[in-house]
Amino acid sequence: MELVRLHWIALLVVAASAAGPSLTPEQRAAIDRISADSLRGHLSFIASDSLEGRATPSRGLDLAAEYIAAQFRRAGLEPPQGSYFQTAKLPNGTASNVAGLLRGSDPALKDTYVILSAHYDHLGMRPDGTDRIYNGANDDGSGTVTVIEVASALAAMPAHPKRSILFLAFFGEEPGLLGSRYYAAHPLVPLDRTIADINLEQVGRTDSTAGPQVGVAYLTGFGYSEIGKIMAEAAQPLGFRMLPDPPAKQDYFERSDNLLLARAGIPATTLYVAADFPDYHQVGDEWQKIDYANMANVDRAITLGLLRLASDEPPPRWNAALPTARKFANGKGK
Q1: Is the dihedral of CA 218, 219, 221, 225 positive or negative?
Q2: 265 in a structural domain
C-alpha cells in the first residue's frame, strides 16, 4: 500500500509540474466563475432558430445585439461613450457593434485598453429546404458567448484588472469584416492606447476535420507579436495549450476581425479551436453540437491571458524582424 501511495504522489507531482505555476487566489476566483451551463444557456438563445441566422442586417441580428447588451448591463460594464451600441449605416439598413467597458483599477493604467472581441453575425437563411436557418453556433456564436462569459467573470472580481478591458461584439464579419472596419475608423477608446486585441472565432466545437481538438487552441499570427507567448504562458497553470496555427491555416490572420485592428497598429490575434468542422457554414452548425466542458476550459485560459495583458506588465510588441508582421508594426498593414 505504501508503494501505491508513493506512486500516486509521484504522478500528482508530475501532473502539477506539467500544468505550470500555480494560480493566485484572484485568478482562481475569476476562472471559477466560468460555467459550461452558463455558456450553454447563452448559446442556446444566440444560435436559436428565433434569431433566423443573424444576417447583416436583420431583425435576428438586432435581437442578438439587444441580448448581448443586456448581459453587459447585467455584469455592470460601462456603456462606452454613453451607449452599448455603436450603430453604422449600411446601404440596406443599420446591425450595431455592441461594446461594454470594464474600467481598470490603476490610476495610471486605466486609460490603456485591452480588447476581447468576436463577431455575432452569421449567414441568415437559405431560400428553401427543410432546415433553412444558418444558426452559426460555433461560427461565431461560441466566440460571442465567450465574450459575455469572460466579461461577467472579470466584472465580478472585487478588484478589477489594472488596465481597462473593452468587450466588443462585431456585426458584419461574414459579408466582409464590416463591424471591425467601422470600429477601426470610429474607435470607442483611443487606438494608440489600445495595447492588444484577442479576437475569438469557433471556440466551441472540438470535432475538427483535422481530428479532435481538446485542451488546445490556436492563435493566428502567433509569432507576429508577443501576444502568442503571453497567452500560452498564462494558460500553463491549467495544462491548456495555446499553439501557433498550422502552416495550412496561416492565412487566417487576414481573414477575421483582428486584421482591421492590426492594420491600425494594435497587436492582435484570432484565437480558435476548430478551424474547419463538418458543417462549417452549413445549417447543421447548431448549439447542441458544442463541447461545453472544453469550451469552458478555453474560456478559463482566455481569462488568465486577459488578466496578464491587463496587468502592469509591459504591453506586447510587434515582432518587426518578421517580414509578415513588419507591415503592421507602424499601423501600415493595409
Answers
A1: negative
A2: yes
Say if 302 falls within a structural domain: yes
pLDDT at 247: 85
Tens-place pLDDT, residues 210-231:
999 999 999 999 999 999 999 9
Which residue matches cell numbers 485598453?
Answer: 113
Distance CA 138, CA 51 (A): 15
Q: Is the dihedral of CA 245, 249, 253, 256 positive or negative?
A: negative
Q: What's the Cα-to-Cα distance from 136 to each of 114, 178, 241, rounded to whole Å?
A: 26, 18, 25
User: What residues form DSSP beta bridges with 169?
Assistant: 98, 118
Residue 47 is assigned to a structural domain of this protein: yes
Q: What's 69's domain CATH number?
A: 3.40.630.10
**Distances in whole angstroms, Cα of residue 289 to Cα of each of 9, 55, 68, 207, 301:** 37, 21, 22, 9, 21
In a domain, 16, yes or no: no
**Model pLDDT for residues 156-208, shown as the tens digit of each residue:** 999 999 999 999 999 999 999 999 999 999 999 999 999 999 999 999 999 99
